[in-house]
Specification:
141 residues, Aldehyde Oxidoreductase, domain 3, 5-stranded antiparallel sheet, 4-stranded mixed sheet
């Protein structure tokens, strides 16, 4: 059975329930879940909204990142979804979840999954600040 249960780049709202259900596994003693949300400031400047864009290869790159995490840790189930499009403050931008036999492994694997997703998957963020200025960020946050 493939441990990569759910991956996606979506232009609609993300579901914690869907991601958590995807990694449910009786062999897992620990499940770690990370949820990234749109915050109201960055670099001390108020953010009013943001937009994510993805390269056409983003899902392929996400799959590659997930495969590396699954190979490096005793993962029993893994899921990762990222939102694209316009998001408001408080919206969920990304969810990753990893199930492993033990909690320490689950924490480490989920940390690697979100860190590698941010560093290697071509998703870009455009932030709109309260003063009307914008900023492109080279990798998702």
């Amino acid at each position: 059975m493939d441990v990569i249960r759910l991956l996606g780049i979506r232009d609609s709202a993300l579901s914690l329930d869907e991601v958590f259900a995807a990694v449910g596994d009786h062999a897992a003693g620990g499940t770690a879940l990370f949820v990234g949300t749109v915050r109201d400031q960055d670099h001390g400047k108020p953010v009013t909204r943001l937009s994510y864009s993805a390269h056409p290869s983003a899902e392929e790159q996400l799959h590659r990142v997930a495969e590396k995490v699954a190979a490096d840790f005793p993962v029993t189930a893994l899921a990762a979804v990222h939102r694209v499009g316009d998001l408001k403050l408080g919206d969920i931008a990304v969810i990753v979840a990893v199930a492993c036999p033990h909690r320490q492994e689950a924490f480490a694997a989920s940390r690697r999954l979100i860190d590698d997703l941010k560093a290697e998957v071509p998703i870009w963020k455009n932030q709109l600040f309260a003063d009307g200025t914008t900023e492109w960020v080279g990798a998702c946050e």
